[in-house]
Design brief:
The protein is of the alpha/beta class. The protein is built from 13 helices and nine strands. The strands form two sheets. The chain has a six-stranded parallel beta sheet with strand order 3-2-1-7-8-9, with helices on both faces. It has a three-stranded antiparallel beta sheet with strand order 5-4-6. The N terminus is likely disordered.
Length: 341
Amino acid sequence: METRLDRYEGAREKKIEQLKQLIKESKYVVFLGGAGVSTESGIPDFRSGEGIFNQESGLSYRPVDIISHSFFEAHPEEFFDFYKRKLCYPKARPNKAHRALVRLERQGKLKATITQNIDNLHQMAGSTTTIELHGSVYRNYCLGCGQKYPLEYVLKAKGVPHCEKCGAIVRPDVVLYEEHLEHENIDNAVKAIKKADLLIIGGTSLTVYPAATFAQFLKSDRVVIINKSSTYLDLQAMLTIHDSIGDVLDSAISKYVPKKKETTAAKALEKKSAAKTVTKAKTAAKPAAKSAAKPGAKASAKADSKTVSKVASKTPARAAKKAEPAKKKTSTDKAKAKKER
């Protein structure tokens, strides 16, 4: 559902310009996203008309009931049948929204990406600040021994996946209904929002708790809502845009991406290693200089000089000079021999 303001000619462009300005003025941006961020990658959301909760489950149970903790324990076969068909999308790839957020992160503006999605697309795009509130289908673990397994293992298993080591069920590391979110993830999300000077909320109807209440921790009123449908925060937000989140973020966030900090760090490491090499060379040279100053070293130095002179005497000039004294000696010997006679 669109707002009337979005229908006016030029309203969308003006709103994107406003968003650009808000980002430009901000130093600590936090993004809070939901299923709508991934719909443009071909992953359906939950509550829209074509969402998972309004689709046929293929079973005699409602989708909302299947993805609960109690159902998982009571009917693991049915759970994994639905889970593999409806919640896992290994071929999905990041869209414009994911890539735009990564650009904002590399520009030094975006400090945290809080997501309710379990598809790992933010990390695939290159995000290093992602906080996954509901876990990820790409992480799986054995309920018996804790052995970890990739998504491929679960998808290839016939029926319920079991551990190769102990035989227990391997379950996805996702938060099901009736289960609690990880306290560490909630704490990190709240801490980030408290520090933020701009909170961008996108692709979520803000009906899932506790994420729906996170905006209250923002110390300012600088909230931007980007969602196709209305939310309870629309009228309180500084800016509300009812449009495609991928198009909006791609237009509002600069295409400029600075060089990765890793390059600078690598250069610093190179300099350090070079400095260490020079230091080692100097340290090794000191003992050699000291040993050269000792009496024993003088003798070895003389021996070395003799060796050098022998080698040098092989040259024609040196050989000629040595030959002259030898001739004089022979003539002198002859004179002495005559006198003796």
